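lol ok so funny story. i was supposed to be doing the assay writeup but got distracted and ended up predicting the structure for this chain instead. priorities right. anyway since i did it might as well share w the group, maybe its usefull for someone
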Amino acid sequence: MTDALSAAAEPSRRRMLQLLASRPRTVSEIAAEFTSTRSAVSQHLLLLASVGLVEAEKVGRNRIYRVVPTGLQELQAEIDRFWTSELDQLVADAHALNARKEA
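and the output, tada:
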């Protein structure tokens, strides 16, 4: 079973989350943004739903997908647990090194 962090790490699924963050969309609307098949997009959306990042509502013949705010909040909390002061220091060191190279 995939967790939310692993699911969101895949570039296509991450893009789908970005699209859905602005507004709910049908599978067809989402698929129009990708070169992959509608079936592949549906499989990605099913995986995102299985980890609680999106949900679908059946409206007539369409499925309308939207993000699940609590799922995204839990994902953010997981990322925050990963982001430690050591990573902050690494970023600061990288910026300092880059500034020295540009000088």
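The mean pLDDT is 91. The helical segments are 4-9, 11-22, 27-31, 38-50, 69-82, 85-102.
back to the writeup now i swear
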